[in-house]
Amino acid sequence: MTKAPTQKSLQAAVTVLGLLGGPAAIAFLVNKAFGPDENSDKVIEVAKEEYKKSGAAITEPSYRGLFPKRQLWTPKLEYPLWDNDWDGKRKTIANIRQINTEKLKFINKHGVTRHIILVRHGQYDQTPEDDSEHILTELGRKQAELTGQRLAQMCNGSEGVFASSKIRVLRVSDMTRAKETADIIAKYLPEVKRDDPDPLLNEGFPAQVLPLRHEMGVNMVQEVDDCHGRIEEAFQKYMYRANLAEDIARLVRNDNLHDAEEESIKKSKLKPNDQHEFEVIVCHGNLIRYFFCRALQLPPEAWLRMSTFNCSLTYLMIKP
């Protein structure tokens, strides 16, 4: 049983504001602060004993005796440095070391911003073991209806409040509860293209968990081995900056940005709304938390420090 929050507990709702779409729904609730019981010597010792019983503990180095060291995420750059080439897209430009502040401003102004809206599925019946029977409850269907209406409002805009947003595609995992949620949402987005369900977006344990959570009740080493590679592949597949148009990439190499901007304005075929791409991904809480950590270049092992709500919107804006 989860204990009630103590005086030191922390709860903070994070609302992510969309550039064009106005306020998004509540994205995250930061979990209660982990009290002494969560990382007590007893809990750590129990975790170490459980790990010692696994085959992995015998055959490979560990991280502080808690899990295989190979399962600890290793960033390209030491924390807290920011990796400007996190998705490899900056290789489009000849020499990243020559991009100064003015050139980056030019790219941000003339490039395409991607808006990724992650939707957790609605409440579902967890009683059956088979995924095909994990159907939405009545409340879950109502949640999906409301989320569909909110996304339609973002598409259509609100006069005097925020502009319309063109959603390019609706994506979904291959699990029943997510597909049912996407089906309901799609009713409110009749002109939006739908992609086939993608098993890469299925639920799973994306990374190890720090601080320790003694109530997990699963073999985390095996779960992470089974799921991490797939979920990381999904992150790289869907979380990236838009490709720089060749004319923009070429112009940025020039030193005279005034002339480059004038030429770009004449040649560019982008209308204001075309500089923003929106897509919706209906998936699962663990993936959303992992994507959030990876996108912000935070340690992925922190994913369980956050909670997501059924049919909540998590809004990530990826600048060019």
Beta-strand content estimate: 15-25%
The end-to-end distance, rounded to whole angstroms, is: 45 Å
Give the number of DSSP strands.
10
The percent of residues in helical segments reads: 25-40%
Q: What's the number of helices?
A: 9
One letter per element, helices H and strands E, the order comes to: EEHHEEHEHEHEHHHEHEE
Tell me the overall shape: globular
How would you state the average pLDDT, rounded?
78
Order of strands in the sheet with most strands: 7-6-8-5-10
- How is the main sheet built? 5 strands, mixed
| Secondary-structure class | alpha/beta
Radius of gyration: 22 Å
Query: Low-confidence stretches at least 5 residues in length (pLDDT < 50)?
Result: 1-28, 30-36, 92-97, 265-270
How would you explain this protein's 3D organization?
Helices cover 33% and strands 16% of the residues. A five-stranded mixed β-sheet has the order 7-6-8-5-10. Helix 4 packs across helix 5. The protein has 320 residues and is α/β, with parallel strands linked by helices. It contains nine helices and ten strands. The radius of gyration is 22 Å and the shape is globular.
Short description:
It contains 9 helices and 10 strands. The chain is an alpha/beta fold and 320 residues long.
What key attributes describe this structure?
320 residues; 9 helices; 5-stranded mixed beta sheet; 10 strands; 3-stranded antiparallel beta sheet; disordered N terminus; alpha/beta
List the helices and strands and how they pair.
Elements lengths: L12 E6 L3 E9 L10 H12 L2 H5 L2 E2 L3 E2 L32 H10 L2 E8 L17 H19 L10 E6 L3 H11 L6 E2 L25 H19 L7 H7 L4 H11 L8 E8 L1 H11 L10 E2 L5 E6 L2
Parallel strand pairs: 5-8, 6-7, 6-8
Antiparallel strand pairs: 1-2, 2-9, 3-4, 5-10
Helix pairs in contact: 4-5, 7-8
